[in-house]
């Protein structure tokens, strides 16, 4: 796997994150070389340690989301913990947090305090509905935010209530936007410093005066807005034409044929035959030249009107063949198709393996060490192969002594007994 220089080497990130959204942002920054110091509460740590826990005291979910980070235990409600956090802020480039709006301010760690400690800090905040507006103070997880975004209304079958996808997609997308926002502001900070230096060299009459107060340049990510941002033309179609989209199951509104189909043996395949040039090749491959030549089916609009008929024809053909046979037959005629993978399929996939997207590491559950466990690789790929994972999510407080000693503080500074500090909201 790729071992070239990582683009964020030398960047330090302080993560005050819990659950998935902010830790996903931290993971992305850590994957590409940033030193991410994750602050966890005494006693329990990040609650993700217990989510989907199969054995021991630390879940594979935590080990995955928090890879390549350091874990430091601090009680943010204590004076000692606050002092330690501010010392970390002074030495960090980026601060990530996903507490309910107002929580950091209540603890004496609001934007004004942070800016005083580090005027150049990039401050990234993730919450359910953002830092402003009438709903800003509400708590909320991604499941709720997905409902507010319009996303949940489109997931599932039209004759059943909306359903959730199998992952915390709202958290993950918000985390990606937070990571992008952090790098964007880091880039802007560097660009302004360079511009300021250039002005000083040429003796410009205009001095470089910074970027405004921290409260005005904070990256503010709302879970509902992150999901709303990926809803494509949902709102413009309604605003322009009064169209209210509904759930379409495995289909995509206005696009046909494109769906999942059950094959012989019980596994399924995805077939995307919705391109005008692709459609006749698909119909010919399934021995339905009559549909390939039908004048009413030469555009997506016509095919969408007869989507049930097309899905039935494709489904009947697939039901008599294995997934492998279906994919091979359609690949020969240039029709996009592929199996619907399970976890078992993923760990055996040659394409993922060739790009280092499955990485095997030994991992502790807290009770025993499991050898050669498969984990997802780092994306995006740079240099042809996934970057090697340095280490999995750390044990609770694994780096507390080292980090506090580096700060010149007592090793037990701020690590008070388990507190009832507010959970992060994401």
TrEMBL record:
EC category name:
transferase
Gene3D superfamilies, A to Z: Crotonobetainyl-coa:carnitine coa-transferase, domain 1, formyl-coa transferase, domain 3
- Gene Ontology MF terms in the entry: formyl-CoA transferase activity
Task: List keywords of the entry alphabetically.
Answer: Transferase
Region annotated Disordered, chain positions: 407-426
| Keyword Cell cycle on entry | no
Q: What is its EC number?
A: 2.8.3.16
- InterPro entries noted in UniProt: CoA-transferase_III_domain (IPR050483), CoA-Trfase_fam_III (IPR003673), CoA-Trfase_III_dom3_sf (IPR044855), CoA-Trfase_III_dom_1_sf (IPR023606)
Q: What is this protein called?
A: Formyl-CoA transferase
């Amino acid at each position: 796997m790729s071992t070239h220089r990582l683009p964020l080497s030398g960047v330090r990130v302080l993560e005050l994150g819990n659950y998935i959204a902010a830790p996903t942002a931290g993971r992305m920054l850590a994957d590409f070389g940033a030193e991410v110091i994750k602050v966890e509460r005494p006693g329990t740590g990040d609650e993700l340690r217990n989510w989907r826990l199969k054995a021991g005291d630390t879940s594979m979910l935590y080990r995955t989301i928090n890879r390549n980070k350091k874990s430091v235990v601090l009680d943010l409600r204590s004076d000692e913990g606050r002092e330690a956090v501010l010392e970390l802020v002074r030495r960090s480039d980026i601060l990530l947090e996903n507490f309910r709006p107002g929580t950091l301010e209540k603890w004496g760690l609001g934007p004004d305090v942070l800016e005083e400690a580090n005027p150049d800090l990039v401050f990234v905040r993730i919450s359910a509905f953002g830092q402003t507006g009438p709903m800003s103070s509400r708590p909320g997880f991604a499941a709720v935010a997905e409902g507010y975004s319009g996303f949940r209304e489109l997931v599932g079958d039209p004759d059943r209530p909306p359903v959730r996808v199998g992952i915390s997609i709202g958290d993950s997308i918000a985390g990606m936007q937070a990571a992008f926002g952090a790098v964007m502001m880091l880039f802007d900070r560097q660009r302004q410093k360079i511009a300021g230096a250039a002005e000083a060299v040429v003796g410009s009459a205009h001095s470089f005066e910074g970027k405004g107060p921290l409260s005005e340049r904070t990256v503010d990510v709302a879970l509902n807005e992150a999901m709303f941002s990926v809803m494509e033309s949902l709102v413009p179609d309604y605003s322009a034409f009064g169209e209210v989209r509904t759930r379409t199951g495995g289909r995509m509104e206005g696009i046909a044929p494109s769906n999942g189909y059950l094959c012989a043996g019980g596994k399924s395949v995805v077939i995307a035959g919705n391109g005008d040039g692709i459609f006749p090749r698909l119909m010919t491959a399934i021995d339905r030249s009559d549909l390939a030549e039908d004048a009413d089916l030469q555009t997506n609009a016509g095919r969408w009107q007869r989507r049930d008929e097309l899905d039935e024809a494709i489904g009947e053909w697939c039901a008599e063949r294995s997934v492998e046979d279906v994919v091979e037959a359609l690949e020969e005629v240039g029709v996009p198709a592929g199996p619907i993978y399970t976890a078992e399929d993923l760990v055996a996939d040659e394409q993922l393996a060739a790009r280092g997207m499955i990485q095997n590491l030994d991992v502790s559950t807290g009770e025993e060490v499991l050898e050669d466990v498969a984990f997802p690789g780092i994306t995006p790929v740079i240099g042809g192969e996934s970057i090697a994972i340095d280490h999995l999510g750390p044990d609770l407080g694994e780096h507390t002594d080292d980090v506090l000693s580096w700060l010149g503080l007592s090793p037990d500074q701020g690590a008070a007994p388990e507190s009832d500090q507010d959970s992060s909201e994401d």
